[in-house]
Design brief:
Belongs to the HD-ZIP homeobox family. Class II subfamily. Pfam families: HALZ, Homeodomain. Keywords: Coiled coil, DNA-binding, Homeobox, Nucleus, Transcription, Transcription regulation. Residues 138-197 bind DNA. By secondary structure, the protein is mostly helical. Among the domains are: 32-144, no CATH class; 235-286, no CATH class. Helix content is 55%, strand content 0%. The protein contains ten helices and no strands. The longest helix has 53 residues, at 179-231. The relative contact order is 0.09. Mean pLDDT is 54; it is low at 1-140 and 253-286. The chain binds a DNA duplex through α2, α3, α4 and α10.
DNA sequence: CTTCAAGCTCAGGTTACCTCA
DNA sequence: GTTGAGGTAACCTGAGCTTGA
């Protein structure tokens, strides 16, 4: 298998043809960022960094409280951000969504959180927003996207694997999800795509490796044979020159391994060692 | 013009929940 | 009913970039 083969195979599959993967989007995306700032009013300044770091420390210190703290941490860290955004989005959407991530918090888990932390009011607010949609009473934290939502997200992902804030907002509105959820979905989707591509690449390289190993084995064997030939000059080498036979296909004298023009230029090499041994390979082609 | 802090998004990794065999 | 594996939403972290002071 040649290099060309390598280049013409599945390695590029996910990249172009399906539009599922775009080249590292950093630059493109960053370019997109600029106009996106026009929509900053949709995303009020958050206090993510500081709060998140603080609570993260708490998490690492108290693993047993991970769940409660984790959710709370995010709520706390995004308190202003999420809730405000949510309120705004609620204004935009007109109502809270049955599929929203907030709805995935059960009353029970929120109660747990209340016991663990002091910011009850915020949780209460979330809870009250959520309660009417979470009637199943399941303690699920995770949202399960509906088929329609998944299809729409997939379609959107096929069009562009990253979203600018405007697109995110629009999609979130369309899906009755929070922009954050859309963002997370796209992040996870990109990760899945990359993982899948890596698996495909890995499989492909494995096959290549197997083929090359086989080829290598074959060449090693051939080399051994040639070395054996060299160490023990075959009978025909000891014969008078007159008895040397001519290779029928290329009309070179067999047994010497020296091509015609090698005498002119000692540095030119034949693409492949050219041996013709009428004894071991009576019908060998060159 | 340079520096710096703040904010945003992303990739990569992890966690935790859910489903299903 | 229990369990383990796989899928995936949500989260954490560090890095890079932009913007405004």
């Amino acid at each position: 298998m040649g290099f060309e083969d390598l280049c013409n195979t599945g390695l590029g599959l996910g990249l172009g043809s399906q539009g599922m993967l775009e080249p590292p989007l950093k630059s493109d995306h960053q370019r997109e960022k600029k106009p996106c700032l026009k929509f900053d009013h949709l995303f009020p300044p958050s206090s993510t960094s500081a709060a998140t770091r603080t609570v993260t420390t708490a998490r690492s210190l108290e693993p047993s409280l991970k769940l409660g703290l984790s959710d709370k941490a995010y709520q706390a860290s995004r308190k202003i951000d999420v809730n405000k955004a949510y309120e705004e989005s609620a204004d935009v959407y007109g109502q809270s969504s049955p599929h929203s991530a907030v709805s995935s918090f059960s009353n029970a888990s929120i109660k747990r959180e209340r016991d663990l932390v002091s910011e009850e009011i915020e949780v209460e607010r979330v809870s009250s927003r959520v309660s009417d949609e979470d009637d199943e009473g399941s303690a699920r934290k995770k949202l399960r996207l509906t088929k329609e939502q998944s299809v729409l997200l997939e379609d959107s992902f096929k069009e562009h694997s990253t979203l600018n804030p405007k697109q995110k907002q629009a999609l979130a509105k369309q899906l009755n999800l929070r922009p954050r959820q859309v963002e997370v979905w796209f992040q996870n989707r990109r990760a899945r795509t990359k993982l899948k591509k890596t698996e495909v690449d890995c499989e492909f390289l494995k096959n290549c490796c197997e083929k090359l190993t086989g080829e290598n084995r074959r060449l090693q064997k051939e080399l051994q044979e040639l070395k054996a030939l060299k160490l023990s000059p075959p009978l025909y080498m000891q014969l008078p020159a007159a008895t040397l036979t001519m290779c029928p296909s290329c009309e070179r004298i067999g047994g010497t391994g020296i091509s015609d023009n090698s005498s002119k230029s000692p540095f030119t090499m034949a693409p492949k060692p050219h041996f013709y041994n009428p004894f071991t390979h009576p019908s060998a082609a060159c």
